[in-house]
Amino acid sequence: MKAAARYSLIALAVLAMLAALTFVLAVKAGLSSMAREDSIVLGSKLVQEAINNYVEKHGSPPRKLEELVPEYIGSVPSFPEISKVDYSLSADGKGWTLDLYRTNRKVPLIYRRTNTGLNVEDAQRRIDTENGCYVLKAR
Questions:
Q1: With contact defined as beta carbons under 8 Å apart, do 54 and 72 qualify?
Q2: Among the listed ranges 27-36, 43-52, 101-110, which one has the minimum average pLDDT value?
Q3: Residues 6+ apart with CB under 8 A from 14
Q4: Partner of 27 at 20 to 30 A CA spacing, among 21, 87, 95, 102?
Q5: 84: which residues sit within 8 A by CB, 6+ positions away?
Q6: 79 near 111, Cβ under 8 Å?
Q7: pTM above 0.90, yes or no
Q8: CA angle 78, 83, 88 (to 5 degrees)
């Protein structure tokens, strides 16, 4: 085999290996990102269930998330990607909203769980709904 053909085959083999490695790294990054998002969505679901259990017993939601610990949930989940947790009650004390802010992204997001639904402005900012969790573009 001529030297030029041999070098071409070697270069082609190296390029094929680099392409495969790039593909594996891209898939790994995508799966890692999905896993982080899933942990936020499912962690907020645990808090929602704890709030619902609290409401069943007390008739209204807790004033603070800390009131759920330890009877309804072992601890309020924390996530490295979340920069702020905002829990609020409606004026009548029956409605509640839990917002988890994920701002370390190109498009900052809010993961919202609520028993009151979205208002018109928030519905326009909604990107997706995952497992009962509204995903909104941050303001």
A1: yes
A2: 27-36
A3: none
A4: 102
A5: 99, 100, 101, 103
A6: no
A7: no
A8: 80
Give the model confidence (pLDDT) of 76-116 as tens digits. 887 777 888 889 999 898 999 999 998 877 788 999 999 99
- Residue written as tokens 């409401």? 55
Collapsed DSSP state (helix, strand, coil) of residue 105: coil
Encoded tokens for 48: 């929602």
pLDDT of 30 strictly over 70 = no
Beta strands in 6-137 (DSSP E): 84-89, 96-102, 109-114, 126-130, 133-137
H or E segment to which residue 19 belongs: helix 3-58
- Structural tokens at position 97: 């909203």
pLDDT in the model for residue 128: 87
**Rounded distance, CA 136 to CA 97, Å?**
13
Structure tokens at 19: 């392409």
Q: Cα–chain-centroid distance for residue 111?
A: 6
Dist. CA 38–CA 44, nearest whole Å: 10
Q: Which residues pair with 97 in a beta bridge?
A: 88, 114
Give mean pLDDT, residues 1-7. Answer: 75
Using omega within 30 degrees of 0 as the cis cutoff, is the peptide bond preceding 80 cis? no
